[in-house]
Structure prediction request, 213 residues.
Amino acid sequence: MFRTAVCAVVAATIGYFFTKMYQARMLLIEREKAGLPVAPGHNFLLGHLLFFKAMMDPLPKDAHYELAFGDIFRQYFAKDGAFYIDLWPLSGLYLAVISPTAATQAVQTSAISCERPRLLERFFKPIAGGPNLFDLVEKEWRPWRTVFNKGFSTDHIYSLVPGMVDNTRIYCETLRKLAERGDMFLLDPTTLRYTMDLIGTTILCVNISQPIL
Prediction:
C-alpha cells in the first residue's frame, strides 16, 4: 500500500512537471509562429537554458545575468528592440525590452500598459510587506498615486535638481580619485553611499553626507 502511494505521488509529480513544461514551451512556440522576435537555439526539453548558458560563459563568473540579455540584443535583435526568451523552470517566459522606443510602447502607450505583472507582487512582498505603488492594479493604484502627485510635479522635480547635481558631482570626483590611485576598488559601497546621499537630499531634505571614499 505504501509503495503504491509513493508511486502514485511520484507519477503525479512527474505528470505535473511535464504538463507545466509543455505549457511553458508552447507559450514561446506560439509567439514564434506569430512572427514575434524569439531568441535562437530553443529546445523543447530545456528551452533556452543551454543558449543562455552559452551567452553567460564569456562573461566574468560573478557577472549579473542581465548582461547576457544585452549581449543577446546586440547580436540578434538590434533592429527589433525586444525579444522573447524561455528560461523555464528557472523563471517564466521573458519579454526582454531593450529599445527605449519599445519600452515606451510597453509601459505607456499599449493597451496593457496599466497592468502589473503578477511576478511583481511576489517580488515586492518580502520588501514592502504587502500591496504598494509598484504592484497595485490601476483601480487601487490611482487614488494612492494622487496622494503623491505633488511630489512628482515638474516644479518640485526641478527644485531638486541642484541637490542632485551636487551629489553627483561629489560622486564623480570620488570615482576619479579612486581611479587615479590605480588600485582595484569596490564600486558597490561607493555607489550605495552616493545613493543614500541622493535619497537624503531629495526625499528627506537632509544632507546625510556619507563618506564615500
Notes: DSSP finds eight helices and two strands in the chain.
